[in-house]
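[audit] Reproducing an earlier prediction to check determinism. Same input, same settings, fresh worker. If the C-alpha cells differ from the archived copy the diff job will pick it up downstream; this log only records the rerun itself.
[audit] input (206 residues):
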Amino acid sequence: MSAHSHVDGKLPHEPEKATLEGRNKVTGFWLFLGGETVLFGTLFSMFLALRHQVGDGNPTSQELFQLPTVAAATFILLVSSLTSVFAIQAMHTNKVKAMINWLIITIVLGLGFLGLEIYEFTEYVHEGHKFSTSAFSTSFYTLVGFHGAHVAFGVLWIGLLIAQIFKKGLTVVTAPKIYVAGMYWHFIDVVWVFIFTVVYLMGKVG
C-alpha cells in the first residue's frame, strides 16, 4: 500500500501516527526538544546571572524595556499558537485547504512577531543598548535573539511544508512533518512566555 492510498481514500484520524516512521519522527522530535530545553535553560541561567551587570551610564532594563511593544508581540505569538492548533485539528479531519490556511495565518503572525522584535532591537540600539555594551546587553541579545532565530526558522520551515503539501498532498508521509512543526511552534511559544516573564516583567520590576 502506497503512502497515498488508503482503503476509503481518506487518511486515518491521526495520520502522523499511522506509520512507524511517523511515530519515530514524533518521538525523535520530543528528544530534540529536550535538548533545546537544556540549551535555552543555559541561556536563561546566563541571563539571570548577568542581568544586573550594567555599565556606568548604560541604560538599565527599567529604562529600556517597552512593555506595550513586547506585550503586543506576546499576544501575536500566543494567537499563532492557537492557529497552529487549528491547523492540526483540520489535518485530523482531512480538511487540507483549511489546514493550509491556518498554517499561512500562523506564518503571517510569526512574521508580525519578528517585525516587532526587529523594531524593538533597533530602538534599544538607538538608546545605546548594543550587543557589546555590557554583560547585561550581551546576555539579553543572546537569549532573545536566539529565540527570534528559532521563530524565523519555524516560519521558513512551515512555509516549505506548505509548498510540499501543494506538491505531494496530505499523506501519511507529509502529515508527521506538519505535526512535528506544530510541536516546534508550541515549544517556541512556551519559551517566549518564560522570556516575557523572566526578562521583561522581572526586568521592569527590577
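[audit] rerun output stored. Observation attached for the diff report: The radius of gyration is 20 Å.
[audit] end
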